[in-house]
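User: Some background: our group keeps a shared notebook of sequences we're curious about, and every so often someone picks one and asks for a predicted structure to add to the entry. Today it's my turn. The entry only has the sequence so far, pasted here. Could you supply the structure so I can complete it?
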Amino acid sequence: MSSIDSLIRENIEKNGLFSNCSGVVLAVSGGSDSMTLLDYFIREVKNIPFAVAHVNHGLREESGAEEEFVKSYCENHSVKCEICKADIPNTKPAGVTTEEYSRTVRYSFFEKTRKKFGYSHIATAHNKNDATESFFMNIIRGAGIKGAAGIPVFRSDGVIRPLLLCEKKDILLHCEKNGIPFVTDRTNFENICTRNILRNDILPRLREINPKLDEAVFRITALAEEDEKYFEKIIDDAILSFGKNRQKNEVPLKFLRNAEKPVISRLLRHVYSSLGARSGLTFRQTNDIIFLLESGHTSDRVLISDGYYAVLDYENLRFVKSEERAVNNIFHRIFEGENRFDGYTVTLKKTSVSKENVRSCFCGNLPLYIRSRKAADRIQLYGRPEKLIKELFIDEKIPASVRSSMFIVTSSDDRPLWLRDFGADKTAWPEIGGTAWEIIINDNTEDSKGE
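Assistant: Of course. Here's the predicted structure to add to the notebook entry:
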């Protein structure tokens, strides 16, 4: 067995790359790395189905010939081959680099191919030198520890890198010794982008200073990856502990104010990225939010990006779209007596319950809160089945323009007790003739009793 075969097998076995594997899509460009990967699968992988996915980016004159080379090789070795003919120059959106868009197109096609065959994994042919390049690219871009982790050998979405322990020079030698054909992309030797400048000029000089540069970077990225896995588990456990009723854009202040900064910053970035924003939180934005947590007050906020604000509620930090601020998005603790906020006056008082005021009354213990409706809020009104408040509004034909002021009173554990204009939840039903809280909400234009 050659040294390359040994390294690939070691990587597969050590990192469990084929764990729970139902099949692999091989990303094959036709270069020495991907052809080495394909050759290994043809010779060594017997019990796992695989197929090749090749993307013709339409960027070079040779693209068509490279497509035919990969297709012909697969036909000669009875390997299933899927081809994507992309027109990158004419379909690339403005403001996106060719490199970024090409990567998006490639992985989209790999995923499409994986679904077509019902496979679980996608294998790319990144090698140890690619990992070094990515490490320095991330450093240049100002990435943090996660960026220093470089190219992971295994991603949670099933993308694996079997060649990551192999160096480029050894791969080329392996191809020469074993007669593995490959094509050469001449643009890799032209300094037309940052990565090529790194590959052709900067890294060779650094390797002159330290011939074991790639090994050194590999150790750094391995340690960084271990650290990131540790923090990812902490973040996953934290989100799980927040409970099922947590809204996607919320993080409990109690947790944030007791956690260490490395956990806070990662949690904020994780939650923000889950909202589908076009860009993640920058280093500066993350620190601005942390400063808000340390010195801000309820309703304070900071502008982030993509039209989002980070806003302090009484119990949560929330990421809110700027247009959401135009509606009555409130969260306040209310006390017995008169409470004023956001153009509203909310009066809370103990009263005797009668048929006339029963829909303004509810039972509950202080502390109490008033807030805007959340998507998952449910309520069971007197004589009705429990249902989502959103569905209740639809059934009652409440206009969308009015729903933003249909506030909810909640308990300290954020359980809805009372809904404006509808009355109390089953857990807070008042008894006629008994004593309960009565709530009266006045806005700037009219005196609106909760009835």
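Suggested note for the entry: The CA atoms of residues 41 and 68 lie 20 Å apart. The chain is about 40% helix and 20% strand.
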